[in-house]
Write a structure and sequence with these properties.
- The complex is a heterotrimer of chains A (355), B (309) and C (277).
- Chain A is α/β, with parallel strands linked by helices and 355 residues long.
- Chain A has 2 domains: 36-135 and 263-323, D-Maltodextrin-Binding Protein, domain 2; 136-260 and 329-333 and 340-354, D-Maltodextrin-Binding Protein, domain 2, CATH 3.40.190.
- Chain A has 15 helices and 9 strands.
- In chain A, strands 1, 2, 3, 4, 5, 6, 7, 8 and 9 form a 9-stranded mixed sheet that branches.
- The model of chain A is unreliable at 20-32 (pLDDT under 50).
- Chain C is built from 11 helices and no strands.
- Chain C is 76% helix and 0% strand.
- Chain C has a domain at 60-239: MetI-like fold.
- Classes of the chains: A alpha/beta (355), B mainly alpha (309), C mainly alpha (277).
- Chains in contact: A-B, A-C, B-C.
- The interface between B and C is large, with 109 and 110 residues.
Chain lengths: 355, 309, 277
Amino acid sequence: MRHTRHVVSAAIVAAGMLGVAACGGGGGPAGAAGAKELTVVMWGGEDQKTHVRDAIEPWAKQNNVNLKQDEPSDYAKFQTQVESGKVSWDLVEVEPHFATKACKNGWAEKLDKTKIDTSLVKAELTGECAVPVLEYAFTIGYNSDVYSAENHPRTWAEFFDTQKFPGKRGFWKDATGAIFEAALIADGVAPDQLYPLDLDRAFRKLDTIKKDIVWYDSGAMQQELVSSGETPLIQAWNGRIYRAATAGRPAAQEWNQHILSYDQLVIPHGSENATTAQDWIGWYLKNPEAQAAYSNDTGYGPVSDAAMQHIKPEVATELPSSPQNAGKRSTIMNYTYWEQNYEDVTQRLEEWRAR
Amino acid sequence: MARQVTVPSTRERASAHDADPAPAAARTPRRARSLLDGWGFLVVPLVAFLLVVFVLPLAFVLTQSFTEPEPGLQNYTDFFGSPVYLDVLANTFWIAGMVTVATVALGFPYAYLMTLAGPFWRGVLMVAVLVPFWTSLLIRTFAWVLMLSDTGVINTVLRDIGVITEPLPLLRNLTGVLIGMSQVMLPFAVLPMYATMRGVDRRLVQAAEGLGATPLQAFWRVYAPLTAPGVAAATLLVFVASLGFYVTPALLGGPGDVMIGELIAKQLSGVLRWGFASALAVALLVVTGLLLALVARFVDLRRMLGGAR
Amino acid sequence: MTSRRIVRGLLGVLVGLTAVYLVAPVFIVVPMSFSDSLFLKFPPTSWSTRWFESYFGDDEWIASTLASLQIGVLVTILSVVLGTLAALGMVRGNYPLRGAVAGLVLAPVLVPYVIIGLAVYAMFLQVGLTETTLGFVLVHTALAVPYVVINVSAALFSFDRRLELAAMNLGAGPVSAFLRVTLPLIAPSMLTGALFAFITSFDEVVTAVFLSGPDLTTLPAKMWSGVRVQIDPTVAAVSSMLLLVTLALFGGAGITRFVRSRSAARRNEPTTVSEAP
């Protein structure tokens, strides 16, 4: 009885103190009058910190902009903010199929061409509302203990050959993970005739290895699967393999037939700091050193050719657009197709997975 | 609400603790019941709170199942038309059911031993049962992956000591899901059962044995019924909480172990089909509600969980 | 007698194995948090405390931990109060639509958190409650309160109301009888409910991700934020520390009780019946 009373009174006192503190907490600090603000949102973690530090902070300091970061990018939050009119995100990294959809639906601001010179970046990676922010590739990842530089699949056809190269195969759960593209290429479709995707043919090809497929949901899981050997062969994101390898894990990748992909930046419609965001984008495209700094730190490809000069040689071999690798590319992901078909293909993939 | 089904008479006879808390002398004849008496008022704060904070926002989202992307029942026809969603919904209940059985079965002896143990061991057991609570979801599931995979801790150890030659498939299948989910659900089962068991007067069991019952009979007909509210609370808690799980099954299970939460999350945050996601959630709610209503018909839930006479 | 011993013995073995099962991940998580690698590896090949340093050196980690603690405590108090009152009303009271009320109280556990998260996010954006302690407390209380209600209801149902009547017959008022007779006896279940409520809030990630932002982030949201790309091993360090703190709290409480009961026994005083921890 006494015990309970003590516990209860202690709890009340603690609550009281915290309650008082709570009244003070929450709610952001008011910015200095006149100072510009920019809230940047990317995929989070160390990579985001590095990216902001390398590519945005220098400009922010020069231009007296108060930088805030949020993480990770979330499409549902994006849409909710725009539809409610209370937009707190100013610059968001997204996948191109979402960028296209956002632009179509009026959820994203159109690029201000007076500030932004889109001719500085590859045209096929740029949209009305979006500029590319980095390049990456879907490659053939392998565990270097189980397979080696001499012995591993060098084409997607070989990747799908479980006789010659036994072991489980890892694939990203998401439909835009190049799984269908890889299956079609493996089945003999010419890379420039991939789209629109012949899904029936792709699923038939996937059926041949269905029981060996392990699905991953994140970069972290991907690294774990291939490094531990659970899936000695995996359809990988090149940056993840690069990171795992440099950290000493037994992961490596084959660049032949890699499929190029990219992320884009969009400005949510209704953002109060849209002009500031457009200013930065304009600056970023004109500053290859800033782009290269991020690439040097992470292994993700820069978006303008001019930046390649500033890439360190040891990193260059790891980038999709370096001379060594660019020639081995099979195709670029067609996000126009994906914007239109993401829903349906996702449903078909879910049905196929569950069978 | 629930039809008054006769509780097995053996329970009534053996139960020395009168299930009806009001003593015979104090049972007043049924006068006209006030619609909302003194005690009943106490539910008002919570109901009001939930209506504002929970029902209001939810209503907007769930009605989207009928209005997005166009008004109509399109989302529901899509749901019934596609084999995968019905299967996954059924699978969700199946997995939740198995987890419930496993945790209550393991949790009952655990809670029972806690009541028998001395303060030190009770403390140890209590700390052990709270450990899954304190390891965050992300790290806990990752740890299970590291433990259960073919090259993971368990298989490596078993191989090294020669018990097995081929790795046991403990991951990416139902086994992995059950292992992972039961661990985190055990505290939800053990604690309510323990709380109830503490309140059971063990002298009743001794009395029954003194009157000639075997230990098994005394346990089954005296002790177990007295722990029924705790067991019922545990069952309800674990089952209902398990239905919403999807992170753990997604990481530990195979494609055949997908639970509906994962699909709802994908539709909501990935594909942005909010109307369809809401329809899936409504389907989950409706089926769960029907299930609980069904259970309430056969088991007088009021006796289990409480209710006015 | 020996059959009872055997049964007890087997019970002990079963329970022991269950305890090991419960605790198993600890043996992975704690060593992992001392690993020098950028990746969560087990067993670690090189050792270091860098992830603990990373935690303590980063304002954001500390801030999110404090936020989660603050929110957790407030949620616990609010949900125990609302939940206990509701449980009393549900078990003892008369009111219309009993089934609907029961369903409403249970509903937060039934609806997928991702739906609740989106719904609440949309509403809170309008009233400016995103990234605020109050906003979090409101949502988490809704999510936590069913656990309190279920636990306290079970206790109230087992509770013999004649004790209360006896107290009143002896002169206590109804409120006094409740506070001094009923409450202490249902306290273990209230504490269980409080524990569940705290954990529900402290560990909750889905709605937290919606409501978090640069101005206020909870610990689970911070842990999950980078997971698409890479898991920050600091997460393992955080888990280890949480485990350590829990161990210290419960261990400390246990030792205090042990010492107190020992010294009381020595002095031959009646001890209080040990309550739930």
